[in-house]
Design a protein that fits this description.
Radius of gyration: 22 Å
Number of strands: 4
Strand content: under 5%
Helix content: 55-70%
Number of domains: 1
Structural class: mainly alpha
Shape: globular
Order of helices and strands: EEEEHHHHHHH
Strand order of the largest sheet: 1-4
Distance between the termini: 52 Å
Length: about 240
């Protein structure tokens, strides 16, 4: 069966090197490209007819659109609507990446901290820039809540600053850890099924099926958590606290 961590190995498919710089097209890049194409085809197919009575694909697109739109309205407010394309892209990219990783012989690019870390830093940098553009230097008041006694500043400011700087790590590590652990569990349980045979492998087979169902739920849940935390951080940048 091999090591359960071999499934996370990044393999160069098209070697591209410029001296010490390695820009090879890898299996991770391939599945990210597949995810983008899948999202595009899903949206294009669903909105092709634009009928008053939606068909199957159009209904799925409208449900996805409404789900993300409601998430933004509930957590950011009307001012967050202009950031809908960004949140929608984050949600669908993470969700499709999680689901693609559940397919046999596929690659879960959300199981790599470099990918989830880049997404987390993008959210962090984006909301920070939005905060300063909207409030100027007054945005620094985010690290010292309004109405708090000045005597508590030496304690509150470092706590708030550490909490703020930990946001990209919280976003990236949560997604990376959940996807990685889930895939390792599936690999280990599948190994038990093969090694124990058909008769003794019934119990690990049942466990594998159960964990697989659970992982599909976690795939959606982690995409939702990533998107909703991004909305909460965006709300702090727009409205502070």
């Amino acid at each position: 069966m091999g090591s359960p961590v071999h499934q996370f190995e990044i393999l160069p498919l098209i070697p591209i090197r410029f001296g010490a710089l390695d820009l090879s097209f890898s299996n991770s890049a391939l599945f990210m490209l597949v995810a983008v194409l899948a999202i595009y085809l899903f949206l294009a197919r669903g909105m092709r007819e634009r009928s008053l009575v939606p068909g199957r694909f159009q209904s799925l697109v409208e449900i996805t659109y409404g789900f993300v739109a409601n998430m933004i309205r509930d957590n950011v407010g009307k001012e967050g609507e202009e950031y809908f394309p960004f949140i929608f892209t984050l949600f669908t990219f993470v969700l499709v990446g999680n689901l693609l990783g559940m397919l046999p012989y596929s690659f879960a690019y959300t199981s790599h901290i470099i990918v989830t870390g880049a997404l987390g830093m993008t959210v962090f940098a984006g909301v920070t820039v939005i905060g300063f553009m909207r409030h100027g230097l007054h945005f620094l008041r985010l690290f010292f809540p309004h109405g708090a006694p000045w005597a508590t500043a030496p304690i509150l400011i470092p706590i708030e600053l550490i909490s703020y700087l930990s946001r990209p790590f919280s976003l990236s590590v949560r997604l990376f850890a959940n996807v990685t652990v889930g895939h390792i569990m599936l690999k280990v349980l599948a190994g038990f099924v093969v090694s124990l045979g058909l008769l003794l492998g019934v119990v690990p087979l049942a466990a594998t099926v159960g964990v697989t169902v659970l992982e599909f739920g976690i795939a959606f849940l982690q995409a939702y958590v990533f998107a909703i935390l991004s909305c909460i951080y965006l709300n702090d940048a727009l409205h502070m606290h």
